[in-house]
Amino acid sequence: MKLVKSLVLGSAAAFVGVTGASAADLPLAEPVEYVKVCDAYGAGFFYIPGTETCLNIGGYVRAEYSVGEVSKNRFTGARPSNASGFRARARFWFDARTETEYGTVRTYIRAQFQRDSGGVNNVSTTATGSDDSIFDKAFVQFAGFTAGLTDSFWDFKPYPTFTNPFVSDRTLALIGYTFDFGGGFSASAAIEDGTARRSNGGTVYQEQTYPDFVGNIRLQQGWGEAQLSGFAHQINSSEVNDSEWGYGGMIGAKVNLPFLAKGDYLWGSAAYTEGALSYIGLGSSGDSGFSSGATQNIVGGNSAPDFVINGGDIDKTKAYAFNLGILHYWSPKWRSALQGTYADVNVKTERADFTAYAVTGNLIWTPVKKLDIGAELNYVKVKDKASNYTLRDDDAFIGRLRVQRDF
Fold first, then answer.
1. What is the DSSP letter of 79?
2. May I ask which residue range the UniProt record assigns to the signal sequence (predicted)?
3. What is the CATH number of the domain that holds 236?
């Protein structure tokens, strides 16, 4: 019995000794590096583990139904293929920022996937639907410079409605610089992709020799913000051995109205252009004012040209536009917006001249944070100036239902 007991105790001691030696030989586990909050740039940023770079990931999912009643296309008399349409969109973005001895280096990427059906959202969309996926923003900012695909330095767009006729809202390639004077005052200049601003309307552009030159002066303070913008746009035509420069200017302002309700504001802009209709949201595809196919159908979409050839000379189209809108919160969960717009387009071809105006209103409910459920009604009317043209008074009603969840 003593022998058995001695064997058991000896085996246990040997096992403990071997186990202790093995445990001592094991490498120590490295401490886990948890994701840390980065509060230097506002809510939603976190440090990428193992780096000094802060990252924000966000986006939204939007579902939309549109219905429209259109008189006729002012050039052909044809109606759109469908009177209603659906849209589903998923958009996401990555915003990475790193502090350096030269200041913040920012890299931003935004992409979206979208499916449309019906003719209200897009006149060229078939009844069976179409898919679209794009990178609509990709840029780097460093020491005041911006380079890549981003918003035009011309644009001023704190507008309060879904649909915004006669407002430029363009994403395009550019290289620009912004000088910050302090106190909310800044000045910016950029060279931008002029091909994204072309509205041919049957008149052929040649290759691009020079980019568009765009600049703005901006003031942003507690009362609101204001911006003065200008551009120069080269016009080369393959039909004549000549070139011209289009140009224009815009002034816009947003005034906060906290005495009405928190978040209320008044917004307005006025713009004049020669030779580049895209700068007032007309002409080239992609402008926000004509994201509705019903609106494109009566205004003519790309039919309004930047210029025409008369007697071997380039005659630039002249246009101006005015916008005024207001946003009001009835309560923290209910808000409304009302916007009116007017545009006048003068082409050196009598048939193409027209004036147009639009009125847009909406009501939006936010039952929980970052969830919007809203409805909007948009009315657009176009009057052709040509006395010998039969389709002079065309209009459209476009209604939209939208559900959007941001994250």
1. P
2. 1-23
3. 2.40.160.10
| Confidence band, pLDDT 50/70/90 cuts, at residue 81 | very low
What are 181-228's pLDDT values in tens digits? Answer: 999 999 999 999 998 888 775 567 777 789 999 999 999 999 999 999
- Asked, for residue 2, whether it belongs to a domain, the answer is no
Look at residue 30 and tell me if it is in a domain: no
The DSSP call for residue 27 is: P
Residue type, 59: G
45 lies in a domain? no
Helices and strands (H, E) in the chain, number of each type: 2, 19
Give per-residue pLDDT as tens, 277-331: 999 988 654 433 333 344 444 444 445 788 888 778 888 999 999 999 999 999 9
Helix, strand and coil content of the chain, in percent to the nearest 5, comes to 10, 55, 35
Q: What is the number of domains present in the chain?
A: 1
Q: Where in the sequence is the domain holding 370, given as residue range(s)?
A: 55-406
- Are the CB atoms for 283 and 196 separated by under 8 Å? no
Average pLDDT over residues 4-19: 47
**Strands, E assignment, 332-370:** 334-346, 354-365
**For the chain, first and last CA: distance in Å?**
74
- 25 lies in some domain: no
